TrEMBL record:
<keyword id="KW-1015">Disulfide bond</keyword>
<dbReference type="GO" id="GO:0006955">
    <property type="term" value="P:immune response"/>
</dbReference>
<feature type="signal peptide">
    <location>
        <begin position="1"/>
        <end position="19"/>
    </location>
</feature>
<dbReference type="GO" id="GO:0005764">
    <property type="term" value="C:lysosome"/>
</dbReference>
<dbReference type="Pfam" id="PF00031">
    <property type="entry name" value="Cystatin"/>
</dbReference>
<protein>
    <recommendedName>
        <fullName>Cystatin domain-containing protein</fullName>
    </recommendedName>
</protein>
<dbReference type="GO" id="GO:0005615">
    <property type="term" value="C:extracellular space"/>
</dbReference>
<dbReference type="GO" id="GO:1903979">
    <property type="term" value="P:negative regulation of microglial cell activation"/>
</dbReference>
<dbReference type="InterPro" id="IPR046350">
    <property type="entry name" value="Cystatin_sf"/>
</dbReference>
<comment type="similarity">
    <text>Belongs to the cystatin family.</text>
</comment>
<dbReference type="GO" id="GO:0004869">
    <property type="term" value="F:cysteine-type endopeptidase inhibitor activity"/>
</dbReference>
<keyword id="KW-0732">Signal</keyword>
<dbReference type="InterPro" id="IPR042886">
    <property type="entry name" value="Cystatin-F"/>
</dbReference>
<dbReference type="GO" id="GO:0005770">
    <property type="term" value="C:late endosome"/>
</dbReference>
<dbReference type="GO" id="GO:0005783">
    <property type="term" value="C:endoplasmic reticulum"/>
</dbReference>
<dbReference type="GO" id="GO:0005794">
    <property type="term" value="C:Golgi apparatus"/>
</dbReference>
<feature type="domain" description="Cystatin">
    <location>
        <begin position="33"/>
        <end position="140"/>
    </location>
</feature>
């Protein structure tokens, strides 16, 4: 019986350590609930990039889009971290065929090619598996 108790304590300690990697002090709500998170959080920035790459890969536009502004960021602990993001994206001057780095792509100037979308991205990440996936997105002009 003591052996079983020791195993349970060990598992509880390990779970506590692994969950500390996923959560931070700004999100103390129970697992499964959404909480606001800083738009500057590194996890948010990576999740936004994942959403942008998914949008660019699935759109028929000849040009790449990149983040103009992050309007809202939330996270939810669900077998990893789910980021729920409201983001404005804008068309750049870089064509998809250029294989350009988004950091080096400037936005289209005001005019015929200038376009902004408001997007909702949901990105799921499992840090201990080094996995990140955009599970849902919706964009509108």
């Amino acid at each position: 019986m003591v052996g079983m108790y020791a195993w349970l304590l060990l598992l509880a300690a390990l779970f506590g350590l692994s969950s500390q990697e996923v959560t931070d002090s700004s999100c103390v709500d129970p697992p499964g609930s959404q909480c606001n998170i800083s738009k500057n959080d590194p996890g948010v920035q990576k999740a936004v990039l994942s959403g942008i790459y998914t949008f660019n890969n699935q759109s028929n536009d000849a040009f790449l889009f990149k983040t103009l502004q992050i309007d809202d960021a939330k996270k939810q602990i669900v077998k990893g971290v789910k980021y729920i993001l409201e983001v404005q994206i804008s068309r750049t001057v870089c064509r998809k065929t250029d294989n350009a780095d988004l950091k080096n792509c400037h936005f289209q100037s005001k005019g015929k090619l200038h376009q902004i979308f408001r997007c909702h991205f949901e990105v799921w990440t499992v840090p201990w598996l080094k996995m990140m996936k955009t599970t849902f997105f919706f964009c509108r002009p």
